[in-house]
Design goal:
The chain is of the alpha/beta class and about 350 residues long. About 45% of the residues lie in helices and about 15% in strands. The chain has a six-stranded parallel β-sheet, sandwiched between helices. It is elongated, with a radius of gyration of 23 Å.
Length: about 350
């Protein structure tokens, strides 16, 4: 768990310092007076510089920009941290920014990065339809683009690093139904109304629950992946239903918000809570016995993979147009493996390479 907490701290700092970064033109320092260097010393210096250059990562010189929906969500903080690790290992300058969950702002960020002549772009779209204008602008500028999460509905994407949202929701529904012995009353906290990933995950969850005649879906309410909004929604569920056996939230922030409301009502022993993502706060909640399980779709690995794919594209490698991410259920029983599940990026952990 030490590594998990350390990465969270580093990622939080990263989120605060990198938001809104831009690439400013550099200014060469003017030589000082009488700064002549003897020829022998010059040769030594040039030799040292040449040696330093050969020791740099092979990708040194690429500049890649990464825009995410917001820097105020731990998921995206971890995602950026993973991307930064991959960039550092490959000698890439990484520029990052959050879009305050506004697709128009995200398009403006993309346009700004185009004017900065970045070599590549990574986009985690606020909205898969609204972002198409930005993707097309990147296409026109000849800048390769990798997307994370949902693939935009238009424009050319070099590689989409994505997961099967329907399957994640379906797996969650099956897991809860089996945990309850095939009988129980459940509530769902979905993401953003109308968003593709939210729709698919919710449909998968509800389809799985429907396979069990003695399972009842009491209510489903969007809470926009937000902890405070999920707490409000859960309060409404608790007031409306005397019996709730389980709650499924399609991200960990909403699960944590639900837990706050459940704790306030003193009903923690009654309700099984399942989240999705595997964030650090979720791991702490599982360790404390408050969250039963999180379906980990590790954002750190997603960010790392996205940078690896844009790096390969810039080098001219043939890469798949889609990478399907893996997810892993984390419970109290496998907490000792959580660090590796969430942050394991040694070369043998590169599951995406097997999809080439």
């Amino acid at each position: 768990m030490k590594k998990l907490l350390a990465v969270l701290a580093a990622a939080t700092l990263l989120g605060g310092t990198l938001a809104g970064c831009s690439k400013a033109p550099g200014k060469e320092p003017e030589p000082a007076e009488n700064s002549g260097t003897p020829a022998e010393t010059q040769e030594e210096t040039q030799g040292e510089e040449s040696q330093e250059e050969t020791e740099k990562p092979a990708g040194s010189g690429y500049t890649v920009a990464f825009t995410v929906p917001t820097m105020n969500n731990p998921f995206f903080v971890d995602q950026i941290a993973g991307a930064q690790k991959a960039a550092d290992e490959r000698g890439i300058e990484l520029l990052t920014t959050g879009a305050d969950n506004a697709v128009n702002q995200q398009i403006e960020q993309i346009e700004d990065y185009i004017t900065q002549n970045v070599d590549g772009m990574i986009v985690h779209a606020v909205d898969t339809t609204g972002i198409v204008t930005g993707i097309e602008a990147l296409n026109e500028a000849g800048i390769p683009v990798v997307t994370t999460a949902e693939k935009p509905t238009g424009g050319k994407v070099t590689c989409a690093v994505t997961w099967d949202n329907y399957q994640d929701g379906y797996s969650a529904g099956k897991y809860i139904a089996e945990a309850l012995g095939g009988k129980g009353k459940v509530c769902e906290l979905s993401g953003v109304a109308g968003q593709q990933s939210s729709r698919e995950k919710s449909q998968g969850f509800q389809d799985a629950i429907a396979e069990y005649p003695d399972m009842e879906l009491l209510a489903s309410q969007p809470a926009e992946f937000d902890r405070a909004k999920a707490m409000d929604a859960m309060e409404n569920f608790l007031q409306s239903f005397d019996v709730i056996d389980a709650v499924y939230a399609s991200n960990d922030e909403m699960a944590l918000g639900a837990i706050q409301a459940i704790k306030a009502e003193g009903r923690m022993e009654e309700i099984f809570v399942m989240g999705n993502d595997g964030t650090a706060d979720a791991i702490k909640a599982i360790e404390a016995g408050e969250m039963a399980v999180s379906n980990a779709t590790p954002p750190f690995l997603q960010g790392y993979c996205a940078v690896d794919m844009i790096y390969r594209a810039l080098k001219g490698e043939d890469i798949p147009d889609t990478i399907i991410e893996q997810s892993t259920i984390i419970t109290k029983e496998n907490l000792d493996e959580a660090d590796h599940i969430l942050f394991g990026v040694d070369e043998e952990d590169w599951y995406w390479v097997k999809q080439f």
